[in-house]
Amino acid sequence: MSRSWTMHPVAQLSLARIREFIREPEAVFWSYVFPLVMIVSLGLAFRSEPIEAVAVVVQDGERTDELVKVLSASARLVVSSGPAEECRRQLRSGKSELIIVADSTDGTDAYRFVFDPTRPGSVHARDAVNDVLQRSAGRTDPVLTVDDAVTEPGSRYIDFLVPGLIGMGLMGGGIWGVGFGIVDMRIRQLLKRFLGTPMKKPHFIAAIMISRIVFMIPEILIVLIASRLLFGVVNHGSYLIMTLLIVLGAFEFAGIGLLVASRAKTLEAVSGLMNLSMVPMWIASGIFFSPDRFPSFIQPLINVLPLTPLIGAMRRVMQESAGLAQIIPELAIILGWGVVTFFLGLKLFRWE
Fold this sequence. Notes:
Strand order of the largest sheet: 2-1-3-4
Helix content: 55-70%
Largest sheet: 4 strands, mixed
Order of helices and strands: HHEHEHEEHHHHHHHHH
Low-confidence stretches: none
Protein backbone atom coordinates (compact mmCIF):
# COMPACT_ATOMS: atom_id res chain seq x y z
CA MET A 1 0.00 0.00 0.00
CA SER A 2 1.47 3.34 -1.12
CA ARG A 3 2.06 6.12 1.34
CA SER A 4 -0.39 8.98 1.53
CA TRP A 5 0.70 12.06 -0.45
CA THR A 6 0.67 14.03 2.81
CA MET A 7 3.65 11.96 3.99
CA HIS A 8 5.66 12.71 0.86
CA PRO A 9 8.93 14.58 1.65
CA VAL A 10 7.91 17.55 -0.53
CA ALA A 11 4.58 17.93 1.26
CA GLN A 12 6.11 17.58 4.73
CA LEU A 13 8.94 20.02 4.01
CA SER A 14 6.52 22.53 2.49
CA LEU A 15 4.30 22.35 5.56
CA ALA A 16 7.33 22.76 7.83
CA ARG A 17 8.42 25.88 5.94
CA ILE A 18 4.89 27.33 6.10
CA ARG A 19 4.68 26.73 9.87
CA GLU A 20 8.12 28.29 10.36
CA PHE A 21 7.05 31.34 8.35
CA ILE A 22 3.80 31.84 10.28
CA ARG A 23 5.66 31.69 13.59
CA GLU A 24 7.91 34.62 12.58
CA PRO A 25 6.07 37.96 13.03
CA GLU A 26 8.83 39.83 11.19
CA ALA A 27 8.43 37.66 8.10
CA VAL A 28 4.65 38.10 8.13
CA PHE A 29 5.05 41.89 8.44
CA TRP A 30 7.48 42.25 5.54
CA SER A 31 5.51 39.89 3.33
CA TYR A 32 1.96 41.14 3.94
CA VAL A 33 1.87 44.41 5.90
CA PHE A 34 4.76 46.22 4.21
CA PRO A 35 3.37 45.83 0.64
CA LEU A 36 0.06 47.26 1.90
CA VAL A 37 1.86 50.22 3.49
CA MET A 38 3.77 50.80 0.25
CA ILE A 39 0.71 50.74 -2.01
CA VAL A 40 -1.14 53.13 0.30
CA SER A 41 1.84 55.50 0.59
CA LEU A 42 2.62 55.59 -3.11
CA GLY A 43 -1.05 55.70 -4.02
CA LEU A 44 -1.55 58.79 -1.86
CA ALA A 45 1.63 60.39 -3.19
CA PHE A 46 0.66 59.86 -6.84
CA ARG A 47 -3.12 60.08 -6.59
CA SER A 48 -4.94 61.90 -9.38
CA GLU A 49 -5.32 65.56 -8.51
CA PRO A 50 -5.33 68.83 -10.45
CA ILE A 51 -1.88 70.31 -11.01
CA GLU A 52 -0.96 72.55 -8.10
CA ALA A 53 -0.70 76.29 -8.67
CA VAL A 54 2.88 77.45 -9.19
CA ALA A 55 4.48 80.16 -7.08
CA VAL A 56 5.87 83.22 -8.86
CA VAL A 57 7.27 86.46 -7.48
CA VAL A 58 7.12 89.97 -8.96
CA GLN A 59 10.16 92.13 -8.45
CA ASP A 60 9.33 95.49 -6.88
CA GLY A 61 8.97 98.36 -9.34
CA GLU A 62 6.61 101.07 -10.59
CA ARG A 63 4.01 98.64 -11.95
CA THR A 64 4.26 95.92 -9.27
CA ASP A 65 0.76 96.33 -7.85
CA GLU A 66 -0.84 96.31 -11.29
CA LEU A 67 1.15 93.25 -12.35
CA VAL A 68 0.32 91.33 -9.16
CA LYS A 69 -3.38 92.08 -9.69
CA VAL A 70 -3.32 90.80 -13.28
CA LEU A 71 -1.45 87.61 -12.43
CA SER A 72 -3.50 86.87 -9.30
CA ALA A 73 -6.60 86.54 -11.47
CA SER A 74 -5.24 83.20 -12.72
CA ALA A 75 -5.99 80.14 -10.58
CA ARG A 76 -2.77 78.55 -11.87
CA LEU A 77 -0.53 81.08 -10.12
CA VAL A 78 0.33 81.99 -6.54
CA VAL A 79 1.74 85.51 -6.75
CA SER A 80 3.89 87.47 -4.31
CA SER A 81 6.23 90.45 -4.64
CA GLY A 82 9.47 91.69 -3.10
CA PRO A 83 12.79 93.41 -3.70
CA ALA A 84 15.30 91.99 -6.15
CA GLU A 85 17.42 90.29 -3.50
CA GLU A 86 14.40 88.59 -1.92
CA CYS A 87 13.16 87.45 -5.35
CA ARG A 88 16.52 85.85 -6.09
CA ARG A 89 16.53 84.14 -2.71
CA GLN A 90 13.07 82.65 -3.31
CA LEU A 91 14.07 81.41 -6.76
CA ARG A 92 17.28 79.92 -5.42
CA SER A 93 15.52 78.12 -2.56
CA GLY A 94 12.70 76.81 -4.75
CA LYS A 95 9.98 78.82 -2.98
CA SER A 96 9.21 80.52 -6.30
CA GLU A 97 9.61 79.14 -9.79
CA LEU A 98 9.83 82.42 -11.66
CA ILE A 99 10.71 86.11 -11.20
CA ILE A 100 8.79 88.65 -13.26
CA VAL A 101 10.43 92.02 -13.82
CA ALA A 102 8.38 94.84 -15.38
CA ASP A 103 10.45 96.82 -17.91
CA SER A 104 9.70 99.46 -20.51
CA THR A 105 11.09 99.56 -24.03
CA ASP A 106 10.52 102.80 -25.98
CA GLY A 107 7.50 103.55 -23.82
CA THR A 108 6.00 100.07 -24.40
CA ASP A 109 5.29 97.72 -21.53
CA ALA A 110 7.72 94.77 -21.46
CA TYR A 111 8.39 91.95 -19.04
CA ARG A 112 11.52 90.02 -18.26
CA PHE A 113 11.31 86.45 -16.97
CA VAL A 114 14.07 85.17 -14.70
CA PHE A 115 13.97 81.37 -14.25
CA ASP A 116 15.94 78.13 -14.37
CA PRO A 117 15.29 76.44 -17.75
CA THR A 118 16.36 73.06 -16.35
CA ARG A 119 13.49 73.02 -13.80
CA PRO A 120 10.19 71.79 -15.27
CA GLY A 121 8.26 73.88 -12.73
CA SER A 122 10.06 77.04 -13.83
CA VAL A 123 9.37 76.37 -17.51
CA HIS A 124 5.71 75.73 -16.73
CA ALA A 125 5.51 78.94 -14.66
CA ARG A 126 7.09 80.96 -17.47
CA ASP A 127 4.56 79.68 -20.01
CA ALA A 128 1.62 80.20 -17.64
CA VAL A 129 2.62 83.78 -16.78
CA ASN A 130 3.30 84.65 -20.42
CA ASP A 131 -0.16 83.34 -21.37
CA VAL A 132 -1.86 85.46 -18.67
CA LEU A 133 0.03 88.61 -19.65
CA GLN A 134 -0.61 88.16 -23.36
CA ARG A 135 -4.32 87.64 -22.83
CA SER A 136 -4.56 90.66 -20.52
CA ALA A 137 -3.04 92.69 -23.36
CA GLY A 138 -5.79 91.55 -25.74
CA ARG A 139 -4.40 88.45 -27.42
CA THR A 140 -6.97 85.97 -28.71
CA ASP A 141 -6.53 82.46 -30.04
CA PRO A 142 -7.20 82.09 -33.78
CA VAL A 143 -8.10 78.39 -33.32
CA LEU A 144 -10.70 77.12 -30.86
CA THR A 145 -9.47 74.30 -28.61
CA VAL A 146 -11.37 72.29 -26.01
CA ASP A 147 -9.78 70.48 -23.03
CA ASP A 148 -11.07 66.97 -22.33
CA ALA A 149 -9.45 65.73 -19.10
CA VAL A 150 -9.09 61.95 -18.79
CA THR A 151 -9.48 60.69 -15.21
CA GLU A 152 -11.05 57.24 -15.51
CA PRO A 153 -9.23 54.19 -14.12
CA GLY A 154 -6.52 52.87 -16.40
CA SER A 155 -5.03 56.19 -17.45
CA ARG A 156 -3.58 57.37 -14.13
CA TYR A 157 -0.09 56.94 -12.72
CA ILE A 158 -1.40 54.69 -9.94
CA ASP A 159 -2.72 52.31 -12.63
CA PHE A 160 0.76 52.26 -14.15
CA LEU A 161 2.39 51.82 -10.75
CA VAL A 162 0.46 48.81 -9.39
CA PRO A 163 1.81 46.21 -11.88
CA GLY A 164 5.31 47.47 -11.12
CA LEU A 165 4.76 46.99 -7.39
CA ILE A 166 3.40 43.50 -7.99
CA GLY A 167 6.49 42.61 -10.01
CA MET A 168 8.74 44.12 -7.35
CA GLY A 169 7.00 42.05 -4.68
CA LEU A 170 7.44 38.85 -6.68
CA MET A 171 11.11 39.64 -7.28
CA GLY A 172 11.88 40.42 -3.65
CA GLY A 173 9.81 37.57 -2.26
CA GLY A 174 11.35 35.02 -4.59
CA ILE A 175 14.99 36.02 -4.48
CA TRP A 176 15.17 37.02 -0.82
CA GLY A 177 12.69 34.44 0.45
CA VAL A 178 14.37 31.47 -1.21
CA GLY A 179 17.98 32.66 -1.25
CA PHE A 180 18.12 33.94 2.32
CA GLY A 181 16.20 30.95 3.66
CA ILE A 182 18.56 28.38 2.12
CA VAL A 183 21.73 30.12 3.26
CA ASP A 184 20.30 30.62 6.75
CA MET A 185 19.65 26.88 6.99
CA ARG A 186 23.15 26.17 5.68
CA ILE A 187 24.68 28.40 8.36
CA ARG A 188 22.61 26.75 11.10
CA GLN A 189 23.80 23.31 9.90
CA LEU A 190 20.23 22.24 9.09
CA LEU A 191 21.17 21.30 5.53
CA LYS A 192 23.86 18.98 6.82
CA ARG A 193 21.21 17.15 8.85
CA PHE A 194 19.01 16.80 5.77
CA LEU A 195 22.02 15.30 4.00
CA GLY A 196 21.92 12.41 6.47
CA THR A 197 18.33 11.52 5.63
CA PRO A 198 17.02 9.54 2.65
CA MET A 199 15.39 12.71 1.30
CA LYS A 200 16.42 13.61 -2.25
CA LYS A 201 17.79 17.00 -3.20
CA PRO A 202 14.99 17.75 -5.73
CA HIS A 203 12.41 17.13 -2.97
CA PHE A 204 14.03 19.69 -0.69
CA ILE A 205 14.39 22.33 -3.41
CA ALA A 206 10.85 21.77 -4.67
CA ALA A 207 9.49 22.20 -1.13
CA ILE A 208 11.41 25.47 -0.65
CA MET A 209 10.08 26.90 -3.92
CA ILE A 210 6.51 25.68 -3.40
CA SER A 211 6.32 27.16 0.10
CA ARG A 212 7.67 30.49 -1.21
CA ILE A 213 5.10 30.58 -4.00
CA VAL A 214 2.35 29.86 -1.45
CA PHE A 215 3.51 32.86 0.60
CA MET A 216 3.73 35.21 -2.40
CA ILE A 217 0.27 34.65 -3.88
CA PRO A 218 -1.61 36.14 -0.86
CA GLU A 219 0.89 39.01 -0.84
CA ILE A 220 -0.01 39.90 -4.43
CA LEU A 221 -3.72 39.51 -3.73
CA ILE A 222 -3.40 42.05 -0.90
CA VAL A 223 -1.84 44.58 -3.28
CA LEU A 224 -4.54 44.01 -5.92
CA ILE A 225 -7.43 44.22 -3.45
CA ALA A 226 -6.03 47.28 -1.65
CA SER A 227 -5.37 49.14 -4.90
CA ARG A 228 -8.90 48.37 -6.09
CA LEU A 229 -10.66 49.38 -2.87
CA LEU A 230 -8.54 52.43 -2.04
CA PHE A 231 -7.70 53.84 -5.47
CA GLY A 232 -10.12 52.22 -7.90
CA VAL A 233 -7.42 50.39 -9.87
CA VAL A 234 -9.18 48.12 -12.36
CA ASN A 235 -7.91 45.05 -14.17
CA HIS A 236 -9.25 45.48 -17.70
CA GLY A 237 -7.97 42.08 -18.77
CA SER A 238 -8.39 38.47 -17.69
CA TYR A 239 -7.87 37.51 -14.05
CA LEU A 240 -6.86 34.04 -15.18
CA ILE A 241 -4.02 35.48 -17.25
CA MET A 242 -2.96 37.67 -14.33
CA THR A 243 -2.96 34.58 -12.09
CA LEU A 244 -0.81 32.74 -14.62
CA LEU A 245 1.65 35.65 -14.73
CA ILE A 246 1.83 35.81 -10.93
CA VAL A 247 2.50 32.06 -10.62
CA LEU A 248 5.12 32.09 -13.39
CA GLY A 249 6.73 35.21 -11.91
CA ALA A 250 6.90 33.57 -8.49
CA PHE A 251 8.49 30.47 -10.06
CA GLU A 252 10.94 32.59 -12.06
CA PHE A 253 12.28 34.54 -9.07
CA ALA A 254 12.25 31.52 -6.77
CA GLY A 255 14.53 29.87 -9.35
CA ILE A 256 16.85 32.89 -9.32
CA GLY A 257 16.87 32.84 -5.52
CA LEU A 258 17.80 29.16 -5.59
CA LEU A 259 20.63 29.81 -8.03
CA VAL A 260 22.22 32.65 -6.03
CA ALA A 261 22.02 30.57 -2.84
CA SER A 262 23.18 27.27 -4.30
CA ARG A 263 26.80 27.70 -3.17
CA ALA A 264 26.79 30.76 -0.86
CA LYS A 265 27.99 29.97 2.66
CA THR A 266 27.50 33.33 4.42
CA LEU A 267 24.72 35.89 4.64
CA GLU A 268 27.13 38.54 3.35
CA ALA A 269 27.87 36.50 0.24
CA VAL A 270 24.24 35.76 -0.60
CA SER A 271 23.21 39.36 0.16
CA GLY A 272 25.80 40.62 -2.31
CA LEU A 273 24.69 38.18 -4.99
CA MET A 274 21.02 39.04 -4.46
CA ASN A 275 21.68 42.77 -4.65
CA LEU A 276 23.79 42.23 -7.76
CA SER A 277 20.88 40.47 -9.45
CA MET A 278 18.13 42.80 -8.18
CA VAL A 279 19.58 46.31 -8.50
CA PRO A 280 19.64 46.35 -12.35
CA MET A 281 15.97 45.31 -12.34
CA TRP A 282 15.10 47.90 -9.69
CA ILE A 283 16.58 50.59 -11.92
CA ALA A 284 15.77 49.53 -15.47
CA SER A 285 12.82 47.12 -15.53
CA GLY A 286 10.08 49.74 -15.23
CA ILE A 287 8.83 49.51 -11.65
CA PHE A 288 8.27 53.24 -11.23
CA PHE A 289 8.76 54.56 -14.79
CA SER A 290 8.84 53.18 -18.30
CA PRO A 291 12.04 51.39 -19.35
CA ASP A 292 11.68 53.20 -22.70
CA ARG A 293 13.35 56.19 -21.02
CA PHE A 294 16.72 54.46 -21.37
CA PRO A 295 18.82 54.80 -24.56
CA SER A 296 17.89 52.53 -27.45
CA PHE A 297 21.25 50.76 -27.53
CA ILE A 298 20.63 49.10 -24.13
CA GLN A 299 16.95 48.30 -24.74
CA PRO A 300 17.67 44.71 -25.92
CA LEU A 301 19.45 44.02 -22.62
CA ILE A 302 16.70 45.63 -20.53
CA ASN A 303 14.01 43.65 -22.36
CA VAL A 304 15.51 40.29 -21.37
CA LEU A 305 15.96 41.13 -17.68
CA PRO A 306 13.72 38.75 -15.67
CA LEU A 307 11.49 41.51 -14.29
CA THR A 308 10.97 43.55 -17.48
CA PRO A 309 8.74 41.08 -19.40
CA LEU A 310 6.76 40.28 -16.24
CA ILE A 311 5.86 43.91 -15.51
CA GLY A 312 5.32 44.63 -19.19
CA ALA A 313 2.93 41.69 -19.58
CA MET A 314 0.97 42.59 -16.44
CA ARG A 315 0.60 46.20 -17.60
CA ARG A 316 -0.62 45.07 -21.02
CA VAL A 317 -3.19 42.75 -19.43
CA MET A 318 -4.40 45.22 -16.80
CA GLN A 319 -4.39 48.37 -18.93
CA GLU A 320 -4.81 47.15 -22.51
CA SER A 321 -6.89 43.96 -22.01
CA ALA A 322 -4.18 41.94 -23.75
CA GLY A 323 -4.98 38.28 -24.35
CA LEU A 324 -2.75 35.25 -23.90
CA ALA A 325 -1.62 35.25 -27.54
CA GLN A 326 -0.45 38.86 -27.27
CA ILE A 327 1.94 38.20 -24.38
CA ILE A 328 3.49 34.94 -25.60
CA PRO A 329 6.97 36.54 -26.08
CA GLU A 330 6.93 37.78 -22.47
CA LEU A 331 5.69 34.42 -21.20
CA ALA A 332 8.50 32.65 -23.06
CA ILE A 333 11.17 34.85 -21.45
CA ILE A 334 9.65 34.45 -17.97
CA LEU A 335 9.35 30.67 -18.30
CA GLY A 336 12.84 30.46 -19.80
CA TRP A 337 14.38 32.28 -16.82
CA GLY A 338 12.46 30.06 -14.39
CA VAL A 339 13.41 26.75 -16.01
CA VAL A 340 17.06 27.62 -16.64
CA THR A 341 17.72 29.03 -13.15
CA PHE A 342 15.88 26.13 -11.48
CA PHE A 343 17.94 23.46 -13.22
CA LEU A 344 21.20 25.39 -12.82
CA GLY A 345 20.44 25.90 -9.14
CA LEU A 346 19.60 22.21 -8.77
CA LYS A 347 22.84 21.19 -10.44
CA LEU A 348 25.03 23.61 -8.47
CA PHE A 349 23.32 23.18 -5.10
CA ARG A 350 25.43 21.87 -2.24
CA TRP A 351 24.24 20.88 1.20
CA GLU A 352 27.39 22.19 2.90
